[in-house]
């Protein structure tokens, strides 16, 4: 759908330069989705893996975020193998709602209420990033945290349009439950993609 070189704005890798490849196609159906134009995979041009890798290598950074849409609707085996062979780190941003494919240096799952993450994806996650709309989401976050490996980094992130209202509750929750961390969409504050 689109690709661009920017700074990872949220979660564990916040602040690091990264090349984003946003793949078309998503069937999760979040009503608040801010990339609804990604949903129809056929609405976007196809590119070869060689073209994608060449575009990445035009920039000095070697961290590549594969996002969507829902990237796991595609078999990502060949793309991630080619990126790693070219010396890149492969970072996945997924809802976890489709089977895991590909070879990953970092897997971030952001669960969605409309289509639950698969247990097999949660078992492979390095970072669980839960977007918070209201206080009832903390229990939902804990239910997912109970399904991930012990080493998984746990993040609570205010939904952008609700940030002014829910951020104080997130701060209080993290102070009381310090295995969680706060994640902010710093790219939105910085006004970068
Ligand atoms: S999973 Fe992501 S791309 Fe798909 S509908 Fe939800 S927010 Fe949008």
From TrEMBL:
Keywords: 4Fe-4S, Iron, Iron-sulfur, Lyase, Magnesium, Metal-binding, Queuosine biosynthesis, S-adenosyl-L-methionine. Pathway: Purine metabolism; 7-cyano-7-deazaguanine biosynthesis. Binds 1 [4Fe-4S] cluster. The cluster is coordinated with 3 cysteines and an exchangeable S-adenosyl-L-methionine. [4Fe-4S] cluster binds at residues 26, 30, 33. It comes from the Bacteria. Its cofactor is Mg(2+); [4Fe-4S] cluster; S-adenosyl-L-methionine. PROSITE patterns: RADICAL_SAM. InterPro entries: 7-CO-7-deazaguanine_synth-like, Aldolase_TIM, rSAM, rSAM_sf. SUPFAM superfamilies: Radical SAM enzymes (SSF102114). Its EC number is 4.3.99.3. It catalyses: 6-carboxy-5,6,7,8-tetrahydropterin + H(+) = 7-carboxy-7-carbaguanine + NH4(+). Belongs to the radical SAM superfamily. 7-carboxy-7-deazaguanine synthase family. Catalyzes the complex heterocyclic radical-mediated conversion of 6-carboxy-5,6,7,8-tetrahydropterin (CPH4) to 7-carboxy-7-deazaguanine (CDG), a step common to the biosynthetic pathways of all 7-deazapurine-containing compounds. Homodimer. This is 7-carboxy-7-deazaguanine synthase. It comes from Hymenobacter aranciens. The gene is queE.
């Amino acid at each position: 759908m689109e690709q661009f070189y920017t700074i990872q704005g949220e979660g564990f890798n916040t602040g690091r330069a990264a090349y984003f490849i946003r793949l078309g196609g998503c069937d999760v159906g979040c009503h608040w989705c801010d990339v609804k134009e990604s949903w129809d995979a056929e609405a976007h041009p196809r590119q070869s893996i060689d073209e994608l890798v060449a575009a990445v290598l035009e920039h000095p950074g070697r961290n590549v975020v594969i996002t969507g849409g829902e990237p796991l609707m595609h078999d990502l085996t060949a793309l991630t193998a080619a990126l790693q062979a070219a010396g890149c780190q492969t970072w996945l941003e997924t809802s976890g709602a489709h089977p895991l494919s590909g070879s990953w240096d970092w897997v971030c799952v952001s669960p969605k209420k409309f289509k639950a993450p698969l247990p097999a994806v949660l078992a492979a996650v390095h970072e669980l990033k839960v977007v918070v709309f209201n206080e009832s989401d903390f229990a939902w976050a804990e239910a997912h945290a109970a399904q991930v490996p012990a080493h998984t980094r746990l993040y609570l992130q205010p939904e952008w349009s609700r940030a002014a209202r829910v951020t104080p509750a997130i701060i209080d929750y993290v102070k009381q439950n310090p295995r969680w961390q706060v994640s902010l969409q710093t790219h939105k504050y910085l006004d970068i993609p």
